[in-house]
Amino acid sequence: MIELVESARTGLPPGAELQGHLRECTRCKERWDEEQSLNTQFQFMRYAAAARPKSETRRHEIMREFALEHQRAPRLSLRWAFSIAAILLLAVALGQVWRNSHRPTGSANTQALSVAQNSGASSPENSAVPAQQAILAQNEFSEAADFEKLPEDSDFVAVPFAPPLATGEFVRVVRTELRPIALARMGFYVSAAAASEITADVVFGEDGFPRAVRVLEEMEF
Amino acid sequence: MPQSDEELYRQMRKGNQSAFAELYERREPALFRYALHLSGSRVVAEEVAHEAFVQLIGSKMRFDERRGSLEGYLYGVARNLVRVMRRKMAFEQGADQVATDDVLGDLIKDERTAALYAAIRELPDSYRDAVVLCDLEEKSYEEAARLMKCPLGTVRSRVHRARMLLSARLKALSVSAGVTAR
Fold first, then answer.
1. Which among B117, B111, B83, B92 is positioned nearest to B177, based on CA atoms?
2. Contact: B50, A62; criterion CB under 8 Å
3. A135-140: long-range contacts (C-beta < 8 A, 24 or more apart)?
4. Is B20–A63 a contact, with Cβ atoms under 8 angstroms apart?
5. Residue B82 pLDDT > 80, yes or no?
6. Nearest to A69 among B57, B116, B166 (CB)
7. Which distant-in-sequence residues (6+ apart) come within 8 Å of A217 by Cβ?
């Protein structure tokens, strides 16, 4: 049967043995005829399918589609590039914010300790400023002061005639703008020429009285 | 020496339009015929052949050389598109309508050929593929096996079975026509 079908498919004449069999077997002869008929039909279908008018419109359409697709591709890659750049910028900005929020912790400790030491040193009466004070001072600094702008060699000067701090008393350091007259009232010598406000860190005791002042602007005392 | 389909595809991906044009000229007519034999509809075949290339140039679908030839890939896309379109058309206007309305357009008015197209459409997918590729597209068993991704012997047996089913269908048709004529 395989030979019969293959012979019919390929159009080759059947072998002598098959030819002899087809003469004797009516069933196989019938199948052979059916296969031949099928071949004729397939042949007709092939011709019909091949008789296709060439469509230039379709061809133009697909070529235009191709051109459009390749115009879109760079635009897409440009969009990707912008997206990546935006993400990078965002990452850098977030990193900066994170660094800023973490940086003061280290410097604040040192600053707070130095404030405590400084305030203690500048007012001999308050020689021992507890660690709690330093911590509080640190908190105040972190809220009210910008440590980056503090000059390295600055120092607190004790306010003359201020009441001494009690042991364990908390201090607050507040950065503020002082009028020259306020400094004068605290016993500092202020030049008459200094008319504008002066930026200064002021150490306050729990009673709200100033204990020490650190002037952040250059001026004559 | 002509470039392989895969080489043309690589160039096409880089934006070479002439490579794409060559690939289109080379493969589109066969895809059209394949879709026509599968669907029996010239309209569907035109649409499928076009859509297969639209998908090829699109960024969503990517042909992978490691998984087979580009020709096989295109036949696969066309086969799926025919299936989708037939389902869609059957849903929209009824399957019988599709079968009788557009069997090769005006080219084929012969009842027997129309019946043969209908019989081909009713064959199981694998038989239909085999008979379309081997008998209508005149591919060798080796080529068909490569495109269908199955052993050569399987293709041969599918072709034989498909032909037997088609013969039986045509025989039944001629018998019923004879009865009607009487």
1. B111
2. yes
3. A136/A170, A136/A171, A136/A172, A137/A112, A137/A171, A137/A172, A137/A173, A137/A203, A138/A108, A138/A109, A138/A111, A138/A112, A140/A172, A140/A173, A140/A174
4. yes
5. yes
6. B57
7. A198, A199, A200
Q: What's the token pair of residue A57?
A: 């419109």
Report CB contact under 8 Å: A5, B104.
no
**What H or E segment, with its residue span, contains residue B140?**
none
Task: Say if CB A211 and CB A203 are below 8 A apart.
Answer: yes
Which residue in chain B has the smallest CA separation from A67?
A: B17
Would you say residue A142 has pLDDT above 70?
no
Are B136 and A49 within 8 A, CB to CB?
Answer: yes
A200 token code pair = 């200064």
Q: Convert the pLDDT of each residue in B115-150 to its tens digit.
A: 888 889 889 988 999 999 999 998 999 999 998 889
| CA neighbours closer than 13 Å in the CB half-sphere of residue B157 | 5
A202 beta partners: A174, A213
How many Å separate Cα B56 from the centre of its chain?
17
Contact B158/B166 with Cβ under 8 angstroms?
A: no
Contact assessment for residue A200 and residue A213, using Cβ atoms and an 8 Å cutoff: yes
* B78 at A interface, C-beta within 8 A: no
How would DSSP label each residue in A182-202? HHHHTT----TT--S-EEEEE
Lowest mean pLDDT among A5-9, A61-65, B44-48: A5-9
Do B37 and A45 make contact, defined as CB atoms within 8 angstroms?
Answer: yes
- Whole-complex ipTM: 0.79
DSSP label of A173: E
Q: Which two tokens stand for residue A163?
A: 């009441």
Q: Is B44 on the interface with A (CB under 8 A)?
A: no
